[in-house]
């Protein structure tokens, strides 16, 4: 494009961690291009991520099956009526966004699409002949896409909460007042290759629950995770689960008050990073080299093992080639405890 667009439509539907990674970039876009009107399309429930940004948010609630086809076209025509868009910026590149792109192109609207570096990521996990190197981060890929839309940005971002916001009463009723160090633990992820064995993580919870100067706050979602964390909450006096009790926006408020978050390579790493909370992240089948590390998180807070089979997967969704998930099982609870204590002092 030769001229700077004034009205842009940005598409990134999922996953939660990837949507969270748009925040530093879109924040920078809005700050550095104040005359540009930004509208973001994503899943309706991620709206709290964008509430502190000067953008318009549009939730895409498309059903599955035949009804979803009608939903999709209604959604497209709603977008067409909403604005005369100067450009569509696709930060997702999936079937939904590809179809939207095609329709907008047919209507004469320019489109730019993220380069996900699929070949580079494939080579990163190609055992035994992998090309082991740091790939561009997702933040860099997002900003590069905007640059091709004639909207160059220097990604500058600290936190979604520039001023401290007190916890709401309903959260305070669950957690009480902060009179100790708060350690967040989010022990789950979508795929087994990214999950530290729960029986080992429980040892970490048990250790810190015995300290009077610490409160352990457990994060998770879904019925199975809620049930598992409820067991830990019942077992350990200084452990409190917020899983299933508060919503995304409230979780961000709690994360802002943490002294450290312990997370897998998962959305919680990215959510905590948006609040400038230090994250101790545990990596197994995946690797930070794929470009999904948390915003401004120190490399020294990564816990991972140097194995020639790692990474075996970009997303952690492959079965372990050895069958024992040694990349996770060989990490000791003591090493995690030591790193947490280094962070909280």
TrEMBL record:
<keyword id="KW-0808">Transferase</keyword>
<dbReference type="InterPro" id="IPR051199">
    <property type="entry name" value="LPS_LOS_Heptosyltrfase"/>
</dbReference>
<dbReference type="GO" id="GO:0005829">
    <property type="term" value="C:cytosol"/>
</dbReference>
<protein>
    <submittedName>
        <fullName>ADP-heptose:LPS heptosyltransferase</fullName>
    </submittedName>
</protein>
<keyword id="KW-0328">Glycosyltransferase</keyword>
<dbReference type="InterPro" id="IPR002201">
    <property type="entry name" value="Glyco_trans_9"/>
</dbReference>
<dbReference type="GO" id="GO:0009244">
    <property type="term" value="P:lipopolysaccharide core region biosynthetic process"/>
</dbReference>
<dbReference type="Pfam" id="PF01075">
    <property type="entry name" value="Glyco_transf_9"/>
</dbReference>
<dbReference type="GO" id="GO:0008713">
    <property type="term" value="F:ADP-heptose-lipopolysaccharide heptosyltransferase activity"/>
</dbReference>
